[in-house]
Automatic annotation (TrEMBL):
Its EC number is 3.1.11.6. GO terms for molecular function: exodeoxyribonuclease VII activity. GO terms for cellular component: cytosol; exodeoxyribonuclease VII complex. This is Exodeoxyribonuclease 7 small subunit. Bidirectionally degrades single-stranded DNA into large acid-insoluble oligonucleotides, which are then degraded further into small acid-soluble oligonucleotides. PANTHER family: EXODEOXYRIBONUCLEASE 7 SMALL SUBUNIT. One of its GO terms (biological process) is DNA catabolic process.
Length: 87
């Protein structure tokens, strides 16, 4: 091993950030990469399952964030449609 090498080359459970901490764009981008890796199909079943589980968590995060954004848009639209006397 050289002086410039970092780590052992083995990822641990803390190697990736918790999906709940990611922005929509971060989760989406990682999900796209995860799908590409899974589509290659060049890993063991255990590795594939770990990527699948990560992909599911990332997809759920994207869904939660999109639902929140959708609700905000709906609220903004409904508040603009109320007559001024109701606001």
């Amino acid at each position: 091993m050289t002086e410039n090498a970092f780590g052992t080359g083995q990822a641990n459970d803390n190697a990736l950030p918790d999906p709940a901490t990611l922005s929509y764009e971060q989760a989406r981008d990682e999900l796209v990469e995860t799908v590409k890796i899974l589509e290659l199909g060049q890993m063991s079943l255990d590795e594939s399952l770990k990527y699948w589980e990560r992909g599911e968590a990332l997809a759920k995060r994207c869904e939660v964030l999109l639902d929140g954004a959708s609700k905000r848009v709906e609220e903004a639209i409904s508040s603009r449609q109320q007559p001024e006397s109701e606001q």
